[in-house]
Specification:
This protein has 30 helices and 24 strands. With 913 residues, it is of the alpha+beta class. Strands 1, 3, 4, 5, 6, 7, 8, 9, 10, 11 and 12 form an eleven-stranded mixed sheet that branches. Strands 16, 17, 18, 19, 20, 21, 22, 23 and 24 form a nine-stranded mixed sheet that branches. Strands 2-14 form a two-stranded parallel sheet.
Length: 913
């Protein structure tokens, strides 16, 4: 015997010949494993990237002074040099070095990743404000106030635009020569202060002359540094007659020792800038804990007493809004994970079903060889070993390729969970193939409709278990509602599987009910002369190819497609409602304070029907039985606002009595947050004044993007705010107005620092947010994937039934059955159950949103205050259903056309063997 012949008969040679004898089914199964592994690794990474991008957008919407780890207190720095650890200039180092070294030591002691998301510390000292007097000015003229500021890194933050830098102050203030200062160009203009001009500043027990020697501009006006000093770039202008203009005047930072004995209030700001772009979504929980610990501790910035007014700094604590922002982002991420897990459970079920069918096809391709091996003495263990080897050869390489491709495709880190799932996919062919190996050999075939007593008993048990699981999951879902956050618990697998479990229940119903009308059809067809309807329906009833697996694929595939279409329509309509509610009018003009002339110009723009300024959004205190709670006061003119928002379903309710003087106090409308906090209190006041709540509104308004607020009419606002200068103006357009032209004119009047927003603009922005965009992509992918897997399941179902047809169709062909009849018999195998499954899947897909959205929070995708109402878009649902039907029909037709061509002689010979 030649070596080549021997190699062909060796174990490896026989296995190779077996695989090459029918590789198509094995290759198809390998491709399924590859796709599953690719999705297992790519999807979690894509979700992590989406969460990180959404976190970046959320943090980017907040000012730096809310995110930075900040300490601001009435104290002065300890004047001393460092041990050389800072990079400050020598003269500044001698004054500020010790404090900066303490700040650097604090940062060095931060744990990772907290230290990694912060930058080197910054600090600034401001004093005052104090009024400066212009020589010869009229008493009724503008009031100018300055805050002398000391920035150790002043020349890193600003550039000189005119004049010169201020010289150090060598003598004690007051009494020294004129103190030199610099302003930003905007503040110098607002102060009407010329270069070289001196003004008098009351300082402690005397007066001090102050001279403007230069003007500066910010190196980067968008730098978060300036959010800690809002009066350093632009002046504050309050009131009208006379206006009060306030701004920061920068003094040489090494001059602080000359001001130590000046009895002016001093505020020291020290902070660690937080860089939102460095925060990864998977670090959120860790950072929340580290921020909790860091902000609860005290840190030493000097040897002085703790936080007493005008004393040297000692121990301080830092605070940051970053923790709350991360908690909010984590809640949104958890909500989106719950939605995505719910969407994914359906396609996962279809993928499993198709893998089972694919493994069955591979097994059927190997059945003849296994039967022959068993007849020649192969043990059950050897048979299982053969199948296991092929399963490993199919699964492991495919899973590796798919996992690597998914990892390379998405540049994000999602841990090892995806690779664990990919490993499960790699072993799935082994498990499925080996499980089909018989316990005894030779292999035997049996009719599906005989000997079913034990099988029916187990079937009832399994079906009852499925129904119980679905019921339990549904009850838990409805009981939980939206109240339970998934931030700490993560995604609940049982609740996420509700769509799949309900689909399984639908499968049980389909498989139990569809034989009833089919049996009636068989009885009627038996009395007719035509063979194909009777034989096809009888075979479909007696020995159906479509068992649980293909029915599950069709029901789940169609229901997932329809459910995704409804969810897509719901999210899009929710985004539209949110955009309308947040703008609150046809347009919103916001930005810098608007003068009376600008407000009048807004109203005079052609195409504008009415305008309504939001006159103030200022901080106030609500006293609740002696305890103070900070909130925001919103001041509007009720008549103006009602005119602008007339007819809008999203308008904030503004009763006319708001403009009246209430007998029991100032009439106000409260947010739900404030109303809940004062519920049951005996004594409540707003800034010491009694009030009467005449309405409660849940959530934010178009006037303020916060959930905590108190709203009153302008007529009653005088005791609560000393200025009514609007920063937001709502605009109503005339019917048929040219929106583009009107918004352009409004923007021109508002100036370059303001912006005009319409609902369409905001709608576009909301749709572009990473979370919303990610959900849309996921829903479209779910529709496409479910449809393709459904088609593949139908094809595989017909392929599984091919051996039986190869025995039957040649016989019928010899008896005169035409080719058209052959294809019709093939279609009968899958047709009845496919039609019923399509209907069941469509009905389930329409009903699923009503159930699932009881416990899945979509507000993370719509950016709204309320859960969006389930919205059915008829054209979208009809298109998805039509696509599902078309895919099913095309798949069945293609499979029936291919499988109808059976070689008669070969089939008869196989039957004889």
């Amino acid at each position: 015997m030649s070596a080549r012949h021997h190699s062909r008969l060796s174990t490896a040679g026989l296995l190779r010949r077996q695989f090459l004898a029918g590789p198509g089914a094995s290759i198809m199964l390998a491709l399924l494993v590859l796709v599953g592994a690719l999705l297992a690794t790519a999807v979690p990474r894509a979700v992590a990237a989406m969460h990180t991008a959404a976190l970046g957008v959320a943090l980017g919407d907040l000012p730096a002074n809310e995110l930075d780890l900040t300490s601001a207190l009435r104290a002065t720095p300890e004047i001393a040099a460092s041990n050389g650890a800072t990079t400050l200039p020598d003269d500044v180092e001698a004054v500020w070095g010790h404090q900066e070294q303490r700040l650097l030591d604090i940062r060095a002691g931060m744990p990772q990743p907290l230290r990694g998301i912060t930058e080197a510390p910054l600090s600034v000292l401001t004093t005052g404000p104090a009024q400066v007097f212009v020589p010869g000015a009229a008493p009724s003229g503008p009031v100018f106030r300055v805050l002398p500021g000391f920035d150790p890194r002043l020349r890193e933050h600003v550039t000189l635009t005119s004049g010169e830098w201020p010289a150090p102050v060598d003598e004690a203030v007051p009494g020294a020569a004129a103190v030199e200062v610099v302003f930003t160009d905007a503040i110098a203009e607002g102060m009407q202060w010329e270069l070289g001009e001196e003004r008098r500043l009351p300082a402690g027990s005397g007066d001090q002359q102050v001279r403007l020697v230069g003007t500066v501009s910010a190196v980067d006006p968008d730098d978060g540094f300036w959010t800690h000093l809002p009066l350093a770039l632009e002046p504050s202008i309050l009131g009208i007659d006379p206006p009060v203009i306030t701004g920061v005047a920068f003094v040489d930072p090494a001059s602080w020792p000359a001001f130590v004995d000046v009895r002016m209030p001093a505020t020291m700001h020290a902070w660690f800038p937080a860089v939102g772009d460095r925060i990864e979504a998977d670090e959120t929980r860790t950072l929340i804990g580290q921020l909790d610990e860091f902000t609860s501790q005290v840190q030493s910035l000097g040897d002085g007493p703790q936080q007493f007014s005008d004393l040297t700094v000692g121990e301080v604590s830092f605070s940051s809004g970053l923790r709350d922002a991360l908690i909010e982002a984590a809640a949104a991420a958890s909500a989106s994970d719950a939605v995505l897990a719910t969407i994914a459970s359906g396609p996962i079920g279809v993928m499993v079903a198709v893998l089972v069918l694919g493994a069955r096809v591979v097994f059927e391709r190997r059945r003849t060889g296994l039967e022959l091996a068993a007849a020649r003495g192969a043990s059950p263990g050897q048979l299982r070993g053969i199948l296991a080897i092929e399963g490993l050869a199919i699964g492991v390489p495919a899973a590796l390729v798919g996992g690597i491709a998914g990892t390379v495709a998405i540049a994000a880190d999602a841990g090892w969970a995806g690779w664990v799932i990919a490993a499960v996919f790699a072993l799935t062919p082994v498990v499925l193939l080996v499980s089909r190996a018989p316990s005894l050999s030779p292999l035997r075939r049996a009719r599906a409709d005989l000997g079913t007593a034990d099988r029916d008993r187990w079937r009832w048990i399994v079906e009852a278990l499925v129904v119980v699981l679905a019921t339990v999951a549904l009850v838990l879902l409805l009981r939980r509602g939206l109240a339970t956050s998934a931030v700490d618990t993560g995604v609940d697998p049982l609740l996420a599987a509700v769509p799949l479990l309900l689909s399984l229940v639908a499968c049980v119903v389909v498989l139990r009910l569809y034989p009833v009308p089919l049996a009636g059809f068989v009885r009627r067809a038996s009395r007719r002369p035509s063979l194909v309807p009777f034989l096809g329906s009888a075979r479909s009833l007696r020995d159906p190819s479509a068992g649980l697996v293909p029915v599950l694929a069709v029901v789940v595939g169609v229901s997932v497609a329809v459910f995704s279409a409804v969810l897509l329509g719901t999210v899009q309509s929710g985004v539209e409602r949110t955009a309308d509610a947040e703008v609150g009018a046809d347009a919103s003009v916001s930005g810098t304070p608007f003068t009376l002339e600008q407000q009048a110009a807004f109203a005079d723009v052609p195409g504008v029907a009415a305008t309504a300024p939001v006159y103030a959004t200022t901080a106030i205190r609500v006293s609740i039985d002696g305890r103070n709670r900070s909130t925001t006061l919103i001041v509007v003119d009720v008549a103006e606002m009602r005119a602008v928002q007339a007819g809008r379903v999203d308008a904030t309710p503004l009763p006319e009595v708001l403009a009246e003087s209430g007998d029991d106090g100032v009439p106000v409308v409260l947010s739900r947050v404030i109303a809940s906090s004062i519920e049951g209190a005996d004594e409540v006041e707003i800034d010491g004044e009694a009030f009467e709540a005449i309405g409660v509104v849940d959530g934010s308004t178009a006037y303020l993007d916060r959930a905590s607020w108190v709203l009153m009419d302008r007529a009653n606002a005088e005791p609560f705010t000393d200025t009514l200068v609007p920063r937001v103006v709502l605009v109503r357009f005339e019917p048929g107005a040219d929106v583009a032209r009107v918004t352009a004119e409004l923007a021109e009047i508002a100036g370059p620092d303001a912006h005009v927003t319409t609902p369409d603009d905001l709608r576009t922005e909301l749709h572009a947010r990473p979370t919303t965009r990610g959900l849309v992509v996921a829903l479209i992918a779910a529709i496409v994937l479910a449809s393709l897997l459904t088609a593949l399941a139908i094809v595989l179902t017909l392929v599984v039934g091919r051996p039986a047809r190869e025995r039957l169709l040649p016989l019928l062909t010899t008896l005169g059955l035409p080719r058209r009849g052959e294809r019709a018999l093939v279609a009968w195998e899958i047709g009845p159950v496919a039609v019923v499954a399509l209907v069941a899947g469509a009905v389930l897909g329409v009903l699923l949103p009503l159930v699932v959205l009881q416990g899945v929070d979509l507000r993370a995708f719509t950016s709204g205050d309320h859960q969006p109402v389930v919205t059915y878009e008829p054209w979208l649902i009809a298109a998805v259903l039509a696509g599902s039907v078309l895919v099913t029909v095309v798949a069945a037709a293609a499979a029936s056309r291919v499988d109808g061509r059976v070689n008669v002689a070969r089939a008869m010979r196989k039957e004889e063997e």
